[in-house]
Amino acid sequence: MSNEIPRWGRVSADPHEFLVQMRDGKIVRSGQGLSVFKWPSDSIALVPTSIRKLSFRADQVTLEKTGVDVTGLAVYRVAEPLLAFRMLDGNVGGLTDILREMFIGATRRIVAGLTLEECITHRKERVAAALIEEITPLLAGQGRDDDATDMGWGVVLDTIEIQDVRVLSNEVFARLQAPYREKLALDALRAKDEVTREAERLEMEKRRTAEQSRRALMAEEEARLVAQRKREAEARAHADELLRQEHEAALEREQRAVMAARTRADVELETRRKTAEVAAETVRMERAAHVDLTEARLRELLMTRTLPEVAIALKGAVERVHVTTTDANVARLFEVGSEVVAGLLQAKRA
Predict the structure, then answer these.
(1) What is the pLDDT of residues 58-88, one digit of tens each?
(2) Is the separation of the CB atoms in 107 and 72 below 8 Å?
(3) Is the pTM of this model over 0.85?
(4) Of 168, 197, 215, which closes a domain?
């Protein structure tokens, strides 16, 4: 409640305050955020109706005789100002202190009947709910069985939250944490082992993939080399075939040239032989026709007609002619003819 109320004059309540004006022990006016004129004989009460909070802390031993420190928070408000202003002594802080002591005592009483596990893990259900069930009837004026007023304090308890339950013994707390820490360590070891196995698997998979890639590249390179060698072999075979064909064609051309030369030589030889035969036959016929020719005439014919024709016929066919005879005259005749033919040939070459 506010302590700044003047002895007389205008008094106004804030929006979060409930004003009660009393005169001669009776309520004259009341209302939320009301403004009235106060006479010196009047009494004014300003009751704050805004939400308020208080913190409390209690230490107690559990059923296992383990000390714990419980810290909580309570939220309350004045719901019935016409009831609350009669109980308040002008200072709302007094109500807060009373409620704090009530919460501390009730918390110790509740924790004493619980186990440590229940205090820690079920603080909302076992501690906070029990506090609300115990304090709410008191605030509603139903704290005693023989209380027939049913007036209450005009205060509503909205909620109680247990913020922390701390084990006072460090050794007990460490032992409580040990299973969890060991479980965490075991989970960490398992996770590390899984990570190691997964890393090894990934490494093996990486190596397998690299090996497969290397083998694929080797196979591709081998196929390329095989194809290249095949192409080179085909190119060499084609070149060898072309060379062989060219060689065979050259041999065939040479053979044809040799055969043609041989044929021409045979034809020329045959022609010259026939020419010589014709010339010899001509000489024989002339001899037969001139049986009475003298030796001088025969020599003249031989030198002027027969031997030149023979020389022309035998030109290039033979280089030297050997004559064997027993007739000295014939031999002499051929010697002279040979000299003449040689001279003719030399003159022809010049």
Answers:
(1) 988 888 888 889 999 999 888 888 887 877 7
(2) yes
(3) no
(4) 168
